[in-house]
Amino acid sequence: MTLKNHIPFIGALFIALLLFSCNRTVSEGKIRIGFSQAMTNDDWRRSMNNAMQLQASLNPDIELTIKDADYDVQRQIEQLEELISEKPDIIIVSPIQSKPITPVVQKAMDQGIPILVVDRKTQNQKYTAYLGADNIEVGRTAAKEIISSNTKDSIRIIEIKGLSGSSPAEERSIGFNQMIDQYGSARVVATIEGDWEKESIQKPLRSLYSGTVNADYIFAHNDRMAVGAWEVLRDMGLEDEVEIIGVDGLSGPNGGIQAVKDGILKATVLYPTGGNEAIKLALRILNKESVPKNNILSTTVINDVNADIMKNQYDRINEQQHNIEQQITAIKDLEDRYYAQNNLLKIVMALSSIILALALYSIYSIFTIRKKNRQLQLTNEKITVQRNQIEKIAEEVKASNDAKLNFFTGLSHEFKTPITLIISAIESLHETARDKGGKMMNELELIHNNSNRLLRLINQLLDFRKVEDRKFTLRASKTNLYKFSENIINDFKREAKKRNIRFKLTSNNEALEVFIDRNLMDKVYFNLLSNAFKFTPDNGKIEINIEDDADGNTVNIRFKDSGIGIPENDMDQVFQAFFKGSNNRKSSSGIGLHLSKEFVEMHKGSIEVKSVRGSEFTVTLYKGQAHFDENEIITEHDLIDTSIIDFTSEHLVDDNYLIQAPSDEAEKYTVLIVEDNRDLAAFLKNKLQLEYDIHLSDGTDAVEKALETIPDIVLCDVNLPGKTGFEICEILKKDLRTSHIPTVILTALGDQDSYVRGLQSGADLYLTKPFSYSILVQSIKSLLYNREKLRYYYTSNIHHIEDTDSFGNIEQQFIGKLNTLINENLGNSDFSVENLAESLNISRVQLYRKVKAMMGISISDYIGNLRLEKAKSMLEKTSLTISEIAYSNGFSSPNYFSTAFKGKYGKSPASFRKSS
Ligand code: FRU
Q: Is 71 in the pocket of ligand 1 (CB under 6 A)?
């Protein structure tokens, strides 16, 4: 634990100790005195309690507890029991009655608690000590006072006794009667049993006086009953006839001394409470001093002789007592203040110590923190320097890596164009050489095969980077899997035949259609088959089996060969990049299978390998399209018309397949080739010029050339000096004069973004390099064919196309506008093609070429056709004369109209009307 962790604990402990030491001990070392008082409803008892408390307060060690039994014997017993259980050091008891209290007093003694009996006694002597005046003596003194003051011959006395069963009552009576009996002329004429209170005696006294009893003296066992007796006598008018003597002799306005002074009582016998003496005696007992069993307090008579003196004495004593009490209070206050200040001082000291400790610790901490901060700063600076170095190195590494990769990618792209050219040239030579046969043919085939192989390798390298960069986006389209597979294996049939390898394709569902990215899946097939052919010896066997899981949602494509197989150890690495089998002695890039796996997984499918007598690769694909994202499905029109393009003829031109180009030179279509690679441009021109009129542009004047020639088709590269192919395409498609021209984008950019960009620019076809010449030719033909179809549509719907935006098609808008202008001027035989071109905002030649390209006829023929069509419908629907119809449709004469009509429809207008 650090110092810091200790500080709160030490502080708390320190304060606790200080606070503890500040408090006055509550019980430890205290003298616990329990006092069971009989009652506190009279002054004598109150005076007793006061005297005890005062005496106790002189000794701070005394803890005095007073329990008031309130004149209830049972209660006093219970309270004594309570005191016993609290185990005080000593118990003082003033019993209400002797007998009932005796056992519990004895019990305290038995339990070893010293017990001091005061005033009234218990029945036996089983207590530690007794303190009180001698009540027999009290009785005697009272009797003596009567006898000595008497002047009569005989004395009649009424004795008013205290509570029966309490020792003072018994003893006072004994002493009194003893003395009276000794004096012959005195006698007790009546006895009243009181209970120490005046109410108990007044009624019996009244009845005594109302009867025969008469007395000279009344001796009451205490002053309260004595005053009560006086009240009765006063009420009866006898107060001067009887002398009353009481006991207690208390000072104060209601006390016996005052009653004597007031002439109410003849005398009172002093019966001291002994409160202070009781405490003193208790301390002595606890101090184990030897004390007498009976401690008798002295008594005396107070009468008119000494009442004043006694009163004065008591007043003085009371005054002194009062002073003492005040001093005690003052001392207590001082003491409390002392303790409070003492405590405060200690707390202040404690807090000061803590503050000092904290201050020291803070200073220590500040130094430590500063030191640590300095260290951290240094470390931080070091780390920053290191990080910067690492970043710099990483940047350098990245830059060098990027540079290498860019170089490598660029180079690979660069390779593609020459290789395309080489392959195309070889294909061309191959055609020529085929007829001649022999050695040249073989060599050409060798060059051809190896060029293709080289191209595949380059493509694989480029694909590998694309896969690493996660740049591939799947473009899946619905494909007949059997036909697709069949097309691919055609490429390998020649090799199979040459090496006498049994090569076959089987399927349990030849009609099965799946969603695949044909380009990627073609690469998977090619890799797996190349692999199989590489490792299968001559006369071996290679099989592709397509198994449609009819009940399930998958299809398995198995590629099985009878080759050398794959060693068990290599199995789990087969699909890792740059893997080469331990039993493979042939050259290998090691990325083919890795790419195959990536491509299959892009289809959410899986590829597995087994090796039992040869290798068996199983590609599992899902049926349907639910497992693809929406954007992975090619939903828009497929740019390559797959019904026309034959995948197998990728490198071999099949003459039978080509649509024969028109033989008539004049009828040749025009092709504008926009390509800055002179070799490729020359090659394409060379190949295509047999069938087409070729115009060339290196890209700098592509738009101008297109506007000038209005070609039938534009082939356009993307990366060009000046505008990109996409931009050129966009301009042409937006211009009314050229918007009808089919555009083919030729590019090395095979990524999704470029493809989308191509589509957005309005290109009709997007061919990635290296493209197969045969596919290019076929695509050109297909686009021209589509244009023919469109042309047919336009010419046969001349009337229905109106000047409206609703088609959203620039061509239809063009024809709509053209038709409106022509229709508006049908009756005007002077309306010329120039007027029309002017209204359309294009040149006469451009209008001529556009209409020719779109509809295959000249603009004047088009206007003529429109007039004839209109006239034909008027012949059918109206009753206008033939000459009216001829003029209203802009024919200069009815004769010319008839000739033209017959030329087009084979009938004269008159016979047409008749027949319809
Ligand atoms: C007070 C008192 C005194 C009397 C004493 C006897 O309660 O009644 O008047 O002297 O008790 O125990």
A: no
